Amino acid sequence: MATPPHDASPAPPNPNPVSDDPPPPPPVTETKPEPEPPLPTTSIDPTPSGDEESGDDSSSSVSSASSTSPTAAAAAAAAGGGGGGGGERAAPHPAAKDLLHISFNQDYGCFAAGTKSGFRIYNCDPFREIFRRDLGAAGDNGVGGGGGGIGVVEMLFRCNILALVGGGDAPHYPPNKVMIWDDHQSRCIGELSFRSPVRGVRLRRDRIIVVLENKIFVYNFADLKLVHQIETAPNPKGLCAVSQQPGSIVLVCPGAQKGQVRVEHYGARKTKFINAHTSRVACFALSQDGRLIATASTKGTLVRIYNAAEGNLLQEVRRGADRAEIYSLAFSNNLQYLAVSSDKGTIHVFNLKINVGLTTNDKPLPAPDPDVPHISPSLSFIKGVLPKYFHSEWSVAQFRLHEGEQYIVAFGHEKNTVAVVGMDGSFYRCQFDPDYGCFAAGTKSGFRIYNCDPFREIFRRDLGAAGDNGVGGGGGGIGVVEMLFRCNILALVGGGDAPHYPPNKVMIWDDHQSRCIGELSFRSPVRGVRLRRDRIIVVLENKIFVYNFADLKLVHQIETAPNPKGLCAVSQQPGSIVLVCPGAQKGQVRVEHYGARKTKFINAHTSRVACFALSQDGRLIATASTKGTLVRIYNAAEGNLLQEVRRGADRAEIYSLAFSNNLQYLAVSSDKGTIHVFNLKINVGLTTNDKPLPAPDPDVPHISPSLSFIKGVLPKYFHSEWSVAQFRLHEGEQYIVAFGHEKNTVAVVGMDGSFYRCQFDPVNGGEMLQLECYNFLKPSSDQPQ
Question: Does the CA dihedral 592-593-599-604 come out positive or negative?
Answer without folding.
Answer: negative
